[in-house]
Design a protein that fits this description.
By secondary structure, this protein is α/β, with parallel strands linked by helices. It has a single domain, classed as YqgF/RNase H-like domain (Nucleotidyltransferase, domain 5, 2-Layer Sandwich), CATH 3.30.420.140. The protein contains five helices and five strands, in the order βββαβαβααα. It has a five-stranded mixed beta sheet with strand order 3-2-1-4-5, with helices on both faces. Strand 1 and strand 2 form a beta hairpin. Helix 3 crosses helix 5. It starts with a strand and ends with a helix. It is found in: Cytoplasm. Pfam families: RuvX. InterPro entries: RNaseH-like_sf, YqgF, YqgF/RNaseH-like_dom, YqgF/RNaseH-like_dom_sf.
């Protein structure tokens, strides 16, 4: 089995999370500048056995696509060209940013640390990945 990599796509920064090889535990990987995302993913996949990529699917409360979906669709086209051998799944990412912020509070992070948007993005990617793992069990 290979790892599953999750992407919480943003126009400026993108949070990433990954499973262990047994696909049991979702852990935050890092946050990268979105302009460097494809190159980061290509480099990561060349070093690690990645079986699948999970990308967040932002939706409004009425189940329609969020504004950011336009940018994600462009990214997905580029991703398919860059890594055609790796399947991509989408996972509803509603509330992940709020849940990530609450996770930071619950874990005792100080107010200054909770302002770290990169950390929020990484935790959001972890929540997306955990949601995917739960849905396929």
């Amino acid at each position: 089995m290979g790892r599953i990599l999750a992407v919480d796509y943003g126009t400026k920064r993108t949070g990433l999370a990954v499973t262990d090889e047994m696909q049991i535990i979702a852990s935050g990987l890092t946050t990268v500048e979105t302009k460097e995302l494809l190159q980061f993913l290509k480099d990561y996949v060349s070093k690690e056995n990645v079986e699948k990529i999970v990308v967040g699917l932002p939706k409004q409360m009425d189940n329609t696509a969020s504004e950011s979906e336009v940018y994600i669709q462009k990214f997905l086209v580029q991703l398919a060209k860059a890594l055609p051998e790796i399947p991509v799944n989408r996972v509803d990412e509603r509330f992940t940013s709020k849940m990530a912020f609450q996770t930071m509070i619950d874990s005792g992070l100080k107010k200054k640390q909770r302002k770290n948007k990169a950390l929020i993005d990484e935790i959001s990617a972890t929540l997306i990945l955990q949601s995917y793992l739960t849905s396929v069990q």
